[in-house]
Input
Amino acid sequence: MIPDKSRKLQNKQKRRGHLSLLSVVLSAILMLVLLTCCDRPDPTPESSGAENTETETDVDESLTAYDGTDLKVTFLNAGKADVIVIRHGDSVTMIDTGLESEKDTMTDYLDAQGIETIDRLFLTHYDRDHIGGVPALLDHCTVKEVYVTSIEAKSTDEAKACKSALAKASITPEIIRGDKEIYTEDHLCFQIDGPQKKSYLKDTSNNSSLVIRLTYAGHSFLFLGDALEERIDEIAGQGRWSAEVVKMPHHGGYEKNLGTLLDEVKPRIAVITCSDKEREEKKTEDLLSDRGIKTFLTRKGTVTITVEEDRIRDTQKD
Output
């Protein structure tokens, strides 16, 4: 028979053992909980409500790699107006059609190049020096696709003629609102930015210009239409418009924020569409010169920039 004193001691030791075991178990559970919390992934942007910071305009290099065919971008000497022809093999894209009075300059060039079909036509805005040649182009060539700005600020004779010619050709233009990206079968990428407002304080028509970035074989071109200060403000600071070649906005007109945009784009080559009667502004030339940017003026001749496998090459003909 175990004395009461010994029995009490044994019970006390058992309780201590149970408590020690319980302490070990609780410690293990606590450690497991802590490890699980530490390993838990951060909430996704969707679940946390954070914005997705992935750049939507990044170009897929595998879809724009050099494919053995050079790309030629030609800026016609067609007065103070934009007529730009982009050719890659049999594929042809145009940006604007210039003045009605200079339509023969456009059609003569297309004939000389043997171009009968335009795969896509971008009309940056509805000013006459950008859409004036649309009726002549549609009479002269087959045009497959047309893209236009979302703002028709002016109801001019040229704008009416443009719309009438498109309707006659049974073409319904695609209106660009916001951003659009086009990858073509022939390895080109067009990134288009539409106006971000419905109207602007000054010159809504020019400020409604589509901004277009073309990329091929690691080289990019930026076409700025007739963007003025308000539209340039929309583009500058986005950090996505770098390009080796820039078609300067509004025929070389000066805007106080133009230098900021150039510092972001960092072009090596600039093209200004201008005429002897309506020349580029000296302040704009100075901005380009101060940054060491090689500048071409179409009033001195048609400019062609060619993307080859390992370089870009520029030429100008009177």
Observations:
- The first helix runs from residue 4 to 39.
